[in-house]
Amino acid sequence: MMKFSQRIGLTPVRDVIQINDIDDILKNRIWNCFISNYFRILAERELNDQYKEGNRPIFCRIFWVNFFLNKIDEVPTDAYGYVSTKEVLQKIKDWFNSAKWFEIYDFVEFVANLENINPRVKTNFISNCNQYLEAELSGFRIIDGIVTPIISEIEIESIEEAINSKKINPEVIHLKAALGYLADRKNPDYRNSVKESISAVEAICCKIAGNEKLTLGKALKRIQAKHPMHVAFKEALEKIYGFASDAAGIRHSLMKNDIDIKFEDAKFMLVACSAFINYLKAKM
Questions:
Q1: Dihedral of alpha carbons 178, 204, 168, 275, sign
Q2: How many CA atoms lie within 13 A of 253 on its CB side?
Q3: Average pLDDT score, the chain
Q4: pLDDT by residue (tens digit) across 267-283?
Q5: Taking a C-beta distance cutoff of 8 angstroms, is the pair 158, 274 a contact?
Q6: Which residues are registered as beta bridge partners of 18?
Q7: Could you tell me where the DSSP H helices lie in the chain?
Q8: Is the pLDDT of residue 106 over 50?
Q9: What CA–CA distance (Å, rounded) separates 218 from 97?
């Protein structure tokens, strides 16, 4: 569930969707993903058949030389001259704990693109990491080994502009509910998030049309008569509403669960509907 400060618009959307920061929970989950998918299993799986030495020392040297860019002959060793994996891991952890958010994503990219690694190990790391990024509402995903933004600053600003209203308007209530369903890290409800986003557009159109009981289609006709809109824009609004209202739409399939609504769908609808609302407020 969203925090009170988020529901009433006092916590910026950018703090709900993590785009310029990584909170401690996400940071810990990324670290745990690294340890679970790489370090703990290195004694069981080969990095590459050509290596005869233990896997962990090789892995530590890779990090020491290629990530930290240190001299290879200065890698920490134990009393017997072997690579001290415990000391290197501690150095990685110390760096990780003090790293900035964008440096954490540098780390993730580096790990996701390590060479001579069992492909299954890489695949599991990327898959698990992406699950955590989605669960903790990161604005990034690992796509083809690259940490890629899935939401832009402009999109964030559009949502914030639509939500951060001093007046308690119906469309704002719906948008905050949509964000709340999307931002619930324990039990996200993408289906109802989409429904609320579209209801927000319907609410503002009915308000502009002067009758809150109208359907979106009828409201748009009244708006068009008083405030002519570009035909393509009007049709776009109708199609978005149709997504929720037709036989295969959200509202008619809530009980059937025959549409698999995902984070990307809910995020798109929240951004698109916020942009439509901002446009209508500015134009009308």
A1: positive
A2: 15
A3: 82
A4: 999 999 999 899 888 87
A5: yes
A6: 138
A7: 4-7, 13-16, 24-37, 55-62, 85-98, 101-112, 119-135, 153-163, 170-183, 190-209, 216-226, 231-245, 263-283
A8: yes
A9: 56
Residue tagged 């989605």 (tokens): 134
Q: CA–CA separation, 111 vs 126, rounded Å?
A: 9
> What residue spans define the domains of the chain?
18-149, 153-283
- Only one residue has tokens 């990584």, namely 22
Residue with tokens 């996400």: 26
* Nearest C-alpha neighbor of 23 from the set 101, 128, 93: 101
User: 140: which strand partners?
Assistant: 149
**Residue listed under structure tokens 């890698």:** 75
Residues pairing with 39 in the sheet: none
3-class state of residue 77 by DSSP: strand
* Phi-psi map region of 145: left, alpha, beta (phi>0 left; psi -120 to 50 alpha): left
Place of tokens 């929240």: 270
User: How sure is the predictor about 142, in pLDDT bands with cuts at 50, 70 and 90?
Assistant: very high
Q: Which of 42-46, 181-185, 198-202 has the lowest mean pLDDT?
A: 42-46
